[in-house]
Amino acid sequence: GQNIDQPTEMTATEGAIVQINCTYQTSGFNGLFWYQQHAGEAPTFLSYNVLDGLEEKGRFSSFLSRSKGYSYLLLKELQMKDSASYLCAVRDEDYKLSFGAGTTVTVRA
Amino acid sequence: EAQVTQNPRYLITVTGKKLTVTCSQNMNHEYMSWYRQDPGLGLRQIYYSMNVEVTDKGDVPEGYKVSRKEKRNFPLILESPSPNQTSLYFCASSLAPDRAGELFFGEGSRLTVL
């Protein structure tokens, strides 16, 4: 499988910006994905990067650098409902998808 | 409503008693996959299927079997469950293999093996 690293926990204040980094080592990279998972619920798809650069979706943006094996998810204008675990996932050439352990983000008032 | 349905949602069983967790999707998706989620380890892929009659091992296939006889169904079979298979299991699907990262997840099945 892939080797995917992301921080375990992050805390931020409501209205602030948080950046969740993800580094990976892979053979046959074929896309990077971000998911959000609220406690006790299933993951939901947030974003997808296959080429270098920034993808923006409302308050959420995701960046990819394939040469550095690096991605980040940027959450802007944080809201209490953004408190969740954020999962970085990498797809290989065989369409196998591997997930990082997830980053738990806590938003404080 | 588009959804991935897993059953049972909760199950407590004993070592060695064969069980099947069913997964069904109503979106005509080609790609389906099973994951287990354990604290500190994240989601780990067990098996995946790119279409009917095509299945491949993920990162942790030992102790599990799958089949894909119909497009909509992808059951996970534990022939002889052991306590280390106690986990939260998710089934997921996507439109096609090249969309394999844009997964729709079922609600999860929490399995306890005593």
Explained architecture:
The complex is a heterodimer of chains A (109) and B (114). By secondary structure, chain A is mainly β. Chain A is 0% helix and 61% strand. Chain A is built from no helices and eleven strands. Chain A has strands at residues 3-5, 9-13, 18-25, 29-37, 44-49, 53-57, 60-65, 70-75, 84-92, 97-99, 103-108. In chain A, the strands form two sheets. In chain A, strands 2, 4, 5, 9, 10 and 11 form a six-stranded mixed beta sheet that branches. A five-stranded antiparallel beta sheet of chain A has the order 1-3-8-7-6, with no helix packed on it. In chain A, a hairpin with a 2-residue loop joins strand 6 (53-57) and strand 7. Chain A is globular. The termini of chain A are far apart. Chain B is mainly beta and 114 residues long. Chain B has no helices and eleven strands. In chain B, the strands form two sheets. In chain B, strands 2, 4, 5, 6, 9, 10 and 11 form a seven-stranded mixed beta sheet that branches. In chain B, strands 1-3-8-7 form a four-stranded antiparallel beta sheet, with no helix packed on it. In chain B, strand 5 and strand 6 (54-57) form a beta hairpin. At the A-B interface, strand 4, strand 5, strand 9 and strand 10 of A face strand 4, strand 5 and strand 10 of B.
Explain briefly what this protein structure is.
The complex is a heterodimer of chains A (109) and B (114). Chain A is mainly β and 109 residues long.
Number of helices of chain B: 0
Shape of chain A: globular
> Which residues of chain A sit in consecutive blocks of at least 5 with pLDDT less than 50?
none
Terminus-to-terminus distance of chain B: 36 Å
Mean pLDDT value of chain B: 94
Structural class of chain B: mainly beta
Write the H/E string of chain A, N to C: EEEEEEEEEEE
Tag the structure with descriptive keywords.
heterodimer, A: about 110 residues, mainly beta, six-stranded mixed sheet, five-stranded antiparallel sheet, about 0% helix, about 60% strand, globular, B: about 110 residues, seven-stranded mixed sheet, four-stranded antiparallel sheet, about 50% strand
